[in-house]
């Protein structure tokens, strides 16, 4: 897994205000478009973070988090059909090697548009 720092993000997007960057990242996490474990506000600018994006896994290869559209979650997952998550995790990581053993270990982060399932 390749981690990124807030300093890297600031350089890449041209942001000069660390607090404003953290607010933006928190907003996108609350919407479900981004995911990172924990809270962004206690991260130092040079501390590596795991950052996941809803559209692509990027350079992340270990299957620690993946998104599911909120509409699918409302219909299926609330009924504890975690097996139905397999197509989502396999699609996100573009791999059929994901095993069902991880499903009971998953925790949930609720965004407005996407739910993120992740391993703590």
Task: Set down the secondary structure blueprint.
Blueprint (H helix, E strand, L loop, with lengths): L5 H8 L4 H14 L2 E2 L16 E2 L11 E5 H6 L10 H8 L13 E4 L3 E5 L2
Task: Report what the structure shows.
This protein has 120 residues and is α+β, with helices and mostly antiparallel strands. The chain has one domain. It has four helices and five strands; from the N terminus they run H-H-E-E-E-H-H-E-E. The chain has helices at residues 6-13, 18-31, 70-75, 86-93; strands at residues 34-35, 52-53, 65-69, 107-110, 114-118. The strands form two sheets. It has a three-stranded antiparallel beta sheet. A two-stranded antiparallel ribbon has the order 1-2. The longest helix is centred in the N-terminal third of the chain and has 14 residues, at 18-31. The model has no long low-confidence stretch (mean pLDDT 86).
Essential attributes:
alpha+beta; 4 helices; 5 strands; elongated
Please summarize what this structure is.
This protein is of the alpha+beta class and 120 residues long. It is 30% helix and 15% strand.
Q: Helices and strands: which structural class?
A: alpha+beta
How many structural domains can be distinguished in the coordinates? 1
Strand order of the largest sheet: 3-5-4
Return the average pLDDT rounded to an integer: 86
Strand content bin: 15-25%
Radius of gyration: 15 Å
Give the end-to-end Cα distance, rounded to a whole number of Å.
15 Å
Order of helices and strands: HHEEEHHEE
Q: Helix coverage percent of residues?
A: 25-40%
- Molecular shape: elongated
Strand tally: 5
Q: What's the tally of helices?
A: 4
Sheet bearing the most strands, described?
3 strands, antiparallel
Low-pLDDT stretches are: none
